[in-house]
Design a protein that fits this description.
Blueprint: H1 2-13, H2 23-37, E1 41-53, H3 54-68, H4 72-76, E2 83-95, E3 101-109, E4 112-122, E5 126-130, H5 131-144, H6 155-165, E6 170-174, H7 176-180, H8 192-203, H9 215-228, H10 230-247, H11 252-267, H12 269-286, H13 290-298, E7 299-308, E8 311-322, E9 325-339, E10 350-351, H14 352-359
Parallel strand pairs: 6-10
Antiparallel strand pairs: 1-2, 1-9, 2-3, 3-4, 4-5, 5-6, 7-8, 8-9
Helix pairs in contact: 1-12, 2-8, 3-13, 6-14, 8-10, 9-12, 10-11
Length: about 350
């Protein structure tokens, strides 16, 4: 059981691989932390554009399926024809203490604009959306699924869907209890952001990535590093988890259970090392698979963060090519600046269950 827990913890650590944890990447994180320390509320504006060549994607997926020996027809399925472009523009206000936010956005797909309204998020209130969000998402899905003859995309369903929404302005998609499993009223996020940055700094102090483009290799390197530095990793993780428990107003009993769990891991440190070693060995075998190598070789990623006077700007590029043809390219460009806006979560809307009952 301890070995399984150790392996699970190592797996969770590897999530950090997607943001990067070497000296350079930690520098970016620290720059972001310093910028956010000066903000009570911030505004994030950005654009994401996705360009997909579905003909090249179908070839790519077919070749991957061949490499796995899978049924190509069943695996690949049917794709749209030619190239498609989608761009999303968004504007988000974020309360840095409570981490609640509102985000308004729209999507331009094949030259047509779809208004997706506003999404509201709060630990104390859950996830609330405007009816425009649901209607816009439904219309966009119908445009993307242009060859779909499902009842969901018939005029009859569209009419029933609009009738069910009626005059409602807001829909609660997820309640706070459903989202977290606990009542989050009164929970403070103060200090938790600093704890996240401290966690990454303390856990991965001295870690360097061999190849930032290879997510798989990055995860293998990270697991090897964890296996060689168990005390450093466990101490930093325990400190972070206790900060999380404090921010959630956890009971003394719950905190004691966390401490007891880490004490057991530290007492059987070799199980933790073995868990990291087992996961590393498994990943090393997986990346040797022809289909996995094909996917990894096709993928490139680049990111840049620049500090501004009152915030920072970040850009990212995800690029997939296969046999000399671009399959897909996703670019993001966003800025985070200090703001005086107040984030207010709307009350009194229809619940998702009530909407489903209306549609029944």
């Amino acid at each position: 059981m301890k070995k399984k827990l150790a392996a699970l913890l190592c797996g969770v650590m590897c999530v950090g691989a997607f943001s990067g944890c070497s000296t350079d990447e930690l520098g970016y994180l620290k720059m972001a932390a310093n910028a956010m320390d000066t903000m009570k509320t911030c505004e994030v504006k950005g654009t994401m554009q996705a360009d997909i060549n579905f003909d090249a994607l179908e070839t790519f997926m077919t070749d991957v399926a061949k490499a796995t020996g899978a049924d190509m027809v069943a695996t690949v399925g049917e794709f749209p024809d030619g190239r498609k472009t989608m761009q999303m523009d968004y504007d988000m206000n974020l309360d840095m203490d409570t981490m609640k936010y509102d985000m308004s956005f729209d999507v331009n797909y094949e030259g047509k604009k779809y208004d997706l309204g506003t999404v509201y998020y709060s630990l104390a209130d859950g996830v609330v959306v405007t009816t425009d969000t649901l209607l816009g998402a439904y219309q966009l899905a119908g445009a993307v699924e242009e060859k779909n003859d499902s009842y969901l995309f018939t005029e009859a369903f569209a009419r029933d869907f609009k009738a069910a929404l009626g005059q409602q302005k807001y829909i609660t998609l997820i309640s706070a209890e459903d989202m977290t499993g606990v009542d989050m009223e009164g929970v403070s996020m103060s200090g938790l952001q600093d704890a996240v940055f401290t966690f990454y700094e303390d856990v991965f102090k001295g870690f360097e990535t061999a190849d930032g483009q290879q997510v798989a290799q990055l995860m293998i390197n990270m697991l090897d590093f964890i296996g060689k530095n168990p005390e450093q990793v466990l101490n930093a993780t325990e400190a972070y988890m206790m900060t999380v428990m404090d921010s959630m107003n956890a009971s003394a009993e719950d905190k004691a259970q966390i401490k007891e769990g880490f004490a057991e891991l530290k007492a059987s440190e070799q199980d933790f090392v073995d868990g990291a070693s087992d996961l590393s060995a498994m990943l090393k075998e997986i990346v040797k698979e022809p289909s996995v190598s094909m996917v990894l070789d096709s993928f490139k990623y680049n990111a840049e963060v620049k500090q501004l006077a009152e915030g920072f700007r970040s850009t990212e590029v995800y690029d997939v090519t296969h046999n000399g043809k671009r399959v897909a390219k996703i670019t993001t460009d966003s800025t985070m600046m200090s703001s005086n806006e107040t984030v207010t979560i709307p009350k009194g809307g229809m619940t998702l269950e009530e909407l489903q009952n209306q549609m029944a």
